[in-house]
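Re: export button greyed out
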Amino acid sequence: MMLFRPNPSLGVPIYLQLMDQVKHAIETGALRPGEQLPGIRPLAEELVINPNTVAKAYRELEHEGIIELRHGAGAFVSRNSGAKKLTDKLRAAQTTVAAAVKQLRAEGLSEEEIRRLFEAELAGLARGGNRE
Amino acid sequence: MSDRLTIETSALRKNYDGVEALRGLDLQVPAGSIYGFLGRNGAGKTTTMKVLLGMARPTAGAARVFGLAAGDRNASVDIRSRTGFVSEEKSLYGYMTVERIIRFTAAFYPKWRRDLEQRYVRAFELPLDRRVKALSLGTRSKLMLLLALCRGTELLMIDEPTAGLDPAVTEEVLQALVAYVSGEGATVFFSSHQIAEVEQIADRVSIIHRGRAVVAGALDELRERFRRVQLVFDGEAPAPAFRAAGIVRAQRNGRSITVLSSAGADAVIEEARAWKPISVDVVPVTLKDIFLETVREEQ
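Workaround output, generated via the alternate export path:
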């Protein structure tokens, strides 16, 4: 299961990276509704990351309605539309972001500069009280 | 916090011949965690482990393992029988062969894991008929780790598990530690200078400096809390006198100020606004940055 590959030295929590990678796998169709995700233990051992981190990512994904945790049976991609709606929303957002990034690149900004601008903007939003 | 604590110290102090090795150390290691213990050489990591294992008596404060007082003689015997300890010193019976020392050690532990033994003899490529004293440093480290992993204990305490190992073996060792926790529900407490490996497998860390924990907590929370904020001004930067909580360091350099915050960027940006910066950058901080900044000596 090499769909997932978090990078521990990114400075971004590993569980968030893992959540994004699961969402991405669902979005691209690599994981379909009803399909089973790898178990916490085998995934932790394969990625050589902490099992509690995998468990946390799965809990949060369940909270967002993207996967279902069935006791004793494992984790499954949700069949309900929650995941789908979010996927559509994210896909639309991706287009917006892609356009912005493309334009900024055309204006000669580096990848690092663009990343910082996004970070600063997000920090600015949080300051305005619009934090989710 | 409702988590059961496998290791807990509070205001722990240890003096050796007038030297203060530990100066009020607070540690909380929940059961089932992989806990990374970071610090420079001489920060007090090895002393902490010795106190926890009853090999050194605390000068003041409390140290508990499995809820038992580490300084108590009888409790300490119990603690040691339930802990696999791998020290930096790697002292072994050099005249024994690898096979012999494995059997010798296994005899002391009723819960010895033969399955893990066979798995790691293969994974670590240990030469069973070679004498211990003829082994390379890396191979000896792997042997020590095998001896600790197979005891079937609920706590593994390791001083520098991957020192001197090549990247492939390091990955094997990290995998073994992850499997140990995920399979047995055990706790791993390890010290390391390899920050990248701590970031990879630990869920909690503490950074110890001069005998005290200067940073401690869930690694994910630290990653979310720590931010570096770079402020650039039109003219000379003002004196960086922040009132915001959690400022680790604020440095002025010509037209810019760099702030490391342990409490997010919002309060810093809010406060800096009054000085009208022409640009504000926020970047996430890696564990390595946090380490270097918090153990840096004041000039």
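Strands of chain A lie at 67-70, 74-77. The button fix ships in the next patch.
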